[in-house]
Design goal:
There is one protein chain. The chain has 10 helices and 13 strands. The protein is of the alpha/beta class. The strands form 3 sheets. Strands 3, 4, 5, 6, 7, 10, 11, 12 and 13 form a 9-stranded mixed beta sheet that branches. Strands 1-2 form a two-stranded antiparallel sheet. Strands 8-9 form a two-stranded parallel ribbon. Helix 1 crosses helix 4 and helix 5 crosses helix 9. The radius of gyration is 23 Å and the shape is globular.
Amino acid sequence: MGDELDPRVLRSFVAVAEELHFTRAAARLYVAQQALSRDIGRLERQLGVRLLTRTTRRVALTPEGERLLVRARELLALHDRTLQELHDLNDGHPLLVDLLAEGHTPARVLRAARERAPPAELVARFHGGFGAALKLLLAGRLDAAFGRSEGLGRPFPAGQLARRLIRLEPMALLLPGEHPLAALDAVPLDALRGTQVDASVGNDSAPEWADLAVGLLAASGAEPSPRHPHAVGLDETVRHLRSHGRPILTLLERPAAPSVVVRPLIEPVPLYPWTMVFRRELRHPGLDALHASADEFAAREGWHEVPPDAWIPAPDAAAFGLGASPALRPPRSRH
């Protein structure tokens, strides 16, 4: 029998032991079910005992599994507490923050946080989507990340991560200057009916964006464009826009470029729920500065206000207690 117990494998065992269901445990850990089964088999071989009994209908703990569950919880709690205490002693440890992409709302929050807490080093990362950032958060390779925390196809891992609403940002279209919709000051959603709109469904790093975008377009009678390689950065996005000519669904606050325009969507106003997610046990002056800066922006610029005529995805409205008022329903046709 091996002399060392891998904390990652112990976490896998605890998840299965608590869920008593491999599919739910895999979703909780954001891993493939096959990988989870391999971890449990490896642990049983290492210990030389059967920890679980499995049939096609149920999973149950053996007496040995029940004893290990008690100790595994204790070991993992001690492991996490020790790492956090060492982390707290290391004042120079930088806070790694994923901003999703350059030039959006999280960049403003980060800039303000750096001014508020100059001794705390905050290091930005750009992984292009919350789906990609989430895996790094769960692996301990990121401390915090911004993005939409719903629409990932599995429950939010509340046992390991905490989250807070940062901003309900109006959504918009990125358009070539000569596009007919560019002549409008704002674009009613009904004007998109029958139009093909680029919803970035080819960005595998951001399933949460595609989930929101496809739902919004379906509710407005528009159609998402075919899957394509994701354009990264402003120059590539503009090149893609000029090449294909389709409106690109985007956020109101974003970098612009010559020959393209950003037009807000209205009737109703679709809102993107920016969320900040961070490791639940994390204590860091940089995180405190991010919270304080987000609070200041929300108070000064009304980042949490919901316009009377608004659309918010139902899962996000439920997650943040925004209510199920008629204003949150999908847009209806005028015809």
